[in-house]
Amino acid sequence: MWRSLCAVLVALLACLFGLLTFLVDPWITDPPRHHQVDVRTATDYAVTADQTGKLPVLLLMTEAVNAAMVTHALLVADAARPFFQVHLASFGGAYAKLLEESGFAYHVLSPVWTEEQTAAIYAVDQFESFSSPYTKEVLQEQISSSLQLYSKIAPSAVVAFFVLSASISARIARLPLFVDMSMTRETSTDPRAIAVSMPDSGVVAKLGLRTPLSHMASWLMKRLNFITPAFEAVAREWNITGIHLVWDLMEGDYTVISDIPSWAGVDAAALPPQVTYVGPLYGKLKKDIPKEVLQLRERATSEKQPLVWFAMGSSGQPPLVLATLRELLKQQPKWFIVAPVHALLAKLKINASDASAKAEAGLDSPQLYIPPELLPSQKVEPLCDLALTHGGQGTVHTSMCSGVPFVGVGMMPEQDLNIRLAVNKGMAIQAMKFDPPSQIAGLMHDLAHSPEMRIAASKIREECQEYTGEYAFVELIQQKLAGK
Ligand SMILES: *[C@@H]1O[C@H](CO)[C@@H](O)[C@H](O)[C@H]1NC(C)=O
Ligand SMILES: *[C@@H]1O[C@H](CO)[C@@H](O)[C@H](O)[C@H]1NC(C)=O
């Protein structure tokens, strides 16, 4: 009996240890800070920038399965237009159409992500699965396709928006690599930042486990390497060393952070020279405000009711989004709501342009507008009084720069952290994705009755004005290429 128990225990420990070594490298005693990949490729594959054109070529590679990454790439592309011949590239994805229609030279690289792989990218990103879509075969093809493009267009630099294989391909071609990130390795793995992302109302905080758990999570995060073995293997084929942790794939020769140091709680003076904060990069669609929105604004003002911005981004979970929207309509039937969630509802087979489908889904209200297309949120949100959003960085930054207080429901740890930073600034309330929708909608009532949060939000809007985002990004590229 005792022996079999022992055996079970040993097996369990072995399993746990197996999982641990799969997810992280437990043997690193002192995980590197911001690191530089030690490039040791032969010069055989080096690409020399094309000097014949009037302007140098700049290649922006973006992960088009993600709306935020496409948005960032297009913002930088527009800002770079006066100084570079801008080329865009992606491995396809739901948002590739925006790249295609952008008017810039656009290259589809291979292999194009399948729907299954896209779902896997999201699952891995949200820590809901550990089956990586970045297999050795996929990476080899991505790299060979990228190298072909590099030699064809001869860029002066590559800018990667979550294109992880660029960490290898750009190094092979010896092209300077700029990487767009939402936060630094240090912020992402800082125990204080992790503790902050856990809400006060959560079980963890109530049991007093916030500090020990955040230290444990930090230890693990600093050593995270569960998707890297395939990258390491491919890098080895090209004699590139230095790629070992997940962070090594997300940092470039120059890492550009789309945030404001004081918002992230970072001392800008203490940053390594390879890291630069440029300020918020959030979508600025060049469209007019639809008349439906202006009508709701007028009615809300005359009826002295709030106008709500309800936006859940591309990572929002459709059932949660639907349930929360329904609850909000039920609890606050007099409020006015602009909810750009058409695409999310379509995933539930609800056609929000169809009145009867909308009624069937419990969304039948003349106070609610669900636009059929994306809205210029930088113009619409400032017209609103309150917001209910997921914690995507772009969404949170749009609220902060619009001066609109919000309730945030994070879909992943990084989003919880974004929301928490706004909570600490006194302009937001944090909800959790496991909270019942009625409770999430209920928090909107608290928000509507807090003049303090409205005041805090308008102060934050002023801080935002000091940063130029995509323009600072392009200026940095120019400086680094000029060797400054
Ligand atoms: C890697 O290095 C080895 C040994 O120096 C060399 O034979 C090989 O050609 C290199 N591979 C590449 C892709 O540069
Ligand atoms: C949704 O409904 C509208 C209005 O009835 C219709 O014009 C549109 O084609 C429908 N869309 C889809 C995808 O079924």
From TrEMBL:
Key words, A-Z: Signal, Transferase
Single GO molecular function: UDP-glycosyltransferase activity
Keyword Amino-acid biosynthesis: no
Domain of life: Eukaryota
Leader peptide range in chain numbering: 1-21
Membrane-traversing stretches: none
Protein name: Glycosyl transferase
